[in-house]
Specification:
Elements lengths: L2 E3 L5 E3 H6 L11 H23 L4 H8 L3 H13 L3 E5 L13 E5 L1 H5 L5 H15 L3 H24 L6 H11 L4 E6 L2 E6 L5 H6 L2 H14 L4 E4 L8 E6 L20
Antiparallel strand pairs: 1-2, 3-4, 5-6, 6-8, 7-8
Helix pairs in contact: 2-4, 3-4, 6-7, 7-8, 7-10
Amino acid sequence: MQRTVGSDGRGLSVSEELRNNGVVKNVGEAPQEELATGERSTRNRVARSILDHGPSTVADLAARLGLTQAAVRRHLDALVSDDVVEPREQRVYGARTRGRPAKVFALTDCGRDAFDQSYDKLAADALRWIASREGGEDAVVAFARARMAVQADAYRKAVEGAAPEKRAEALAKALSADGYAATARSAPVGEQLCQHHCPVAHVAEQFPQLCEAETEIFSQLLGTHVQRLATIAHGDGVCTTFIPAAAHQTTENESASTAGRNPA
C-alpha cells in the first residue's frame, strides 16, 4: 500500500487518508501535529479535486480550492512523490498557440485506487450472476476453488520449501505478501494462523464459499485438517485458523467446521 508522509515524518496510508477527508483534532495534541493533520487534509482535497475535475493545472487547482499556487505546488510535489498524481503535458485541441503547453496533474492508477471503488459490488454482482446462470451454489463453489487454486501456487512453493515445524509460518508470510497481514503463533496442542486483513471480506460476507475454499487450500497445503475458528467476513476481528499438532491430528475423514462460522 502506498504511504504518504506528513510534515511530522510519520507514514500514513494513502487510502486511509484519501477516504477520510475530515480534520480530527484531539485534546492535548501538539500544535505541529495539528498542522500536519491540516496539511494531509488539504493534500487530500487537492487529490479529490483532480478526481472530480480531471487533469488540472496548478492555476485550476488554486482557483477551485482557494489556495495559493505555491501551496498547491507544494502539495502536488508530495502527491507526485507518493505516486498519487503524475504531471502530464496538457492536450491541446485545435491550433496550438506559441509557447510550451501548460502542465497538468492527473491521478495515477495507484491514486485512483486510493479512493473508494465499486469493486466489491462488482464482484458480488458477478458471483450472483454466476449462481443464477451457471448452476447455483455449486457454480460459486467451483469458482471459489478455482480462484484459490491459482493463488495457492505461490503458497505451495513457500510451504514445501519450509521445515514441517515452520510451514504455518511460511504460509503466513506468503499470505502477507498477498495483502492478508498474516501471522502464525503457538496455541494449545497446535498453532493458529491469523489473518488480520482480508481483501475480499465484503464479498465473503455474502459468499462464504470463498472462506470455505481458502480453508480447504490451507488443509491441502499443510497436509492436515484445519479448523476455521473465526473470520472477518463473519464479523470477527481476525480470520483465525487452528492447525493441530501432529499428535492431535484427526483422520482425514473428519472435516473442519464450516468456514465463516464460529463453532457452536
